Amino acid sequence: MQSPYNKPLPVPDSESTPFWDGMREGKLVLQRCASSGDYLFPPVTFCPGSLERPEWVAASGKGTVFSWITVRHPVPRDIYAGDVPYVVAIVALDEGCRMTGNLVGCTPEAVRAGMPVEIVFNRVTPEITLPAFRPVGD
Amino acid sequence: MFKLRDKYAIAGIGNTDYTKASGRTVRSLATEACLKAIEDAGLTVADIDGIVSFNFNDSAPAIGVATEMGIENAGYAVDYAAGGNGANLITLAATAAIEAGLAKTVVCFRAMNGRSGFRLGGGRDLSAYGVTQYTAPLGWITYPQAMAMWARRHMIDYGTTEEHWAEIATTFRDNAVINERAMQRTPMSKDDYYNSRFIVDPFRMYDICLESDGACAVVITAAEHARDLKQKPVYIMGGAYGGGPTQGDDLFDAIRWPSHSHNCFKYLADDLWGSAGIGPEDVDVAEIYDCFTYSVLMALEGLGFCKEGEGGPFVMGGRIARGGALPLNTHGGLLSEAYIHGFNHVIEAVEQLRGTSGARQIQGAEIALTTAGAMTCGSAMILRN
Known about the structure:
The structure holds 2 protein chains of 2 kinds.
Chain A: E1 9-10, H1 17-24, E2 29-32, E3 39-40, E4 55-58, E5 62-71, H2 77-80, E6 86-93, E7 98-103, E8 116-123, E9 129-135
Parallel strand pairs in A: 7-9
Antiparallel strand pairs in A: 2-3, 2-4, 5-6, 5-8, 6-7, 8-9
Chain B: E1 8-15, H1 26-41, E2 50-55, H2 62-69, E3 76-81, H3 86-99, E4 105-113, E5 127-128, H4 143-158, H5 162-177, H6 190-195, E6 198-201, E7 203-204, E8 213-222, H7 223-226, E9 234-242, H8 265-276, E10 285-287, H9 293-302, H10 311-315, H11 333-336, H12 343-354, E11 367-372, E12 378-384
Parallel strand pairs in B: 2-3, 2-4, 10-11
Antiparallel strand pairs in B: 1-8, 1-9, 4-8, 6-7, 9-12, 11-12
Pfam families (chain A): OB_ChsH2_C, zf-ChsH2
Protein name (chain A): Zn-ribbon domain-containing OB-fold protein
Pfam families (chain B): Thiolase_C_1
C-alpha cells in the first residue's frame, strides 16, 4: 500500500545512512574529523583535503538560528498548500557546523537571528525522521 | 588568470523572441539564435567550426544544434553542465578553444523553454538524493527559497532592507519599459513593488526573476578576424570563473559556505579586474545577474563597487539608473527583460558597446561588465569597444 506521505523524502546513501538511522532512533549524530576536531555537515566520505575517514559521534542538538525563510507561496502547490506559512532554518550548531531543519514551536514573526534552538525529531514515515528545531527558553 | 586580454572579440549576436510559450523545440530556438548571430557577424555557417553551450538537462545538445544548422565540421562542440554561472564561462571557454587551436570561430548559445517546458523556478524532483536529502524534505525546494535564505542573512549582517530591493526592481523595470525585447513592459512603481505578494519571506514576487522561453547566441573569433567582419568588434578584455571554497554539489549546497552575505564574486574579483587591467571605477555599464534583487547587491559588493554590506545604500538615489553613475541592467535584466539564464545580459552589453541600444543607450559606453551566477559559483567578463 502506498504511503500517504506525499512530500519529498531523503534517499539515504552510503554517506548519510548513519545520520538517518540516528534520526529514526531520536538521536542526532554528526561526523567529526579526529585530526582537526571539526564537525561536518552534510555527511561526506572523507575529511576535507585528506583520505581521513570522519567518525560518527553524538551531538547536542543545540544551536542558534543562522538564517531562515518563511515559505508563503506553496511549491508544488498541491503538496504544500496546507502547510504554508512554514519556516526553514539554517542552524549554527554548538559543535561548530551548520545544519538545516524546519523551525517549529513559534510563529514566523517570532523568529530572530541568533535565537537559541534545540532539535526536535519529526517522524514522517516509519523509516524517515526529519530534523526540526524549536526555541529553547532561557 | 585569463591571459587573453583583447585577443578575442564578440563578432555577432542573435536572439529569438522571449515568450511564455514558444510552441517550438528548444533546439529550433537555439538554431535560430545561432544563425542570427552568424548572419549578424557577416559570416555563414561554413565559417563556424565550434559550438558551446551550457544547460541543466533542459536544452538541446551542441552537436544537435550544429546538426540542424548544418555545420560541416564542429571540431569543438561542448555542453557545460552549468546553471546561472555558465553564461560567461562558455564565452571564455570559446576563447580558450580558439587559442588552443581547437577551432577558429565559435558560436555560443543558451536556449530554453524555461516557462513552457522545464521550469527552474517551479520546483524540483521530489526524490531527495545527495545534498538535497537535507533540504527538499524540509519544503526547501525552489530557487527563490534557496536565495531567500541568503538574503535574510544579509539583512541580519548589514541591515539591508526591502527598500533597497524595491529600488533595484523598479529601476530595472524602467529599463524594460523602453526595451522592445522585454517581456515585462508595464511600469512598476514602488507601491506596485510593495504590494506584490510575499512568495517566500523576505522575497516578494517582484524580487524574483521571470521565467522565459527563448535563446541567445554570440559568435566569438580572434580580434584580427573580427575587425574584418560586418560589425564593430566588442573585445573581451578580461574574465573569470569560479568562486571560492565549498562551492558544493549544487546551488542548494551552501550550508558550509563561509558567509551568505557574500557570494562567488568576492572570490572572482581579483582575477577579473587583474585580467582586464582595469577596476570597477572604469566600468560604464554593467549587466548584473539578477535572478533575484538581492543577488545584485552581492555582485556589486563582491566585485568591489562598494564594500561588503554597503550595496543597499549604494544602489539608492538613482546611481544605477540609466542616467546614473553606474547604469545597471539596461535591458531590464532577468527581473524584467527575460530569463535566458544570463546570456541575454551578454547580448545587451554588446549592443551597448556597439552603440545600438536605441532609447536604452548609455552615451559613450566603452567598457561593460557582465556577470553570471548568484551563489557559490559564477562567471564574469569585461568587454570593451
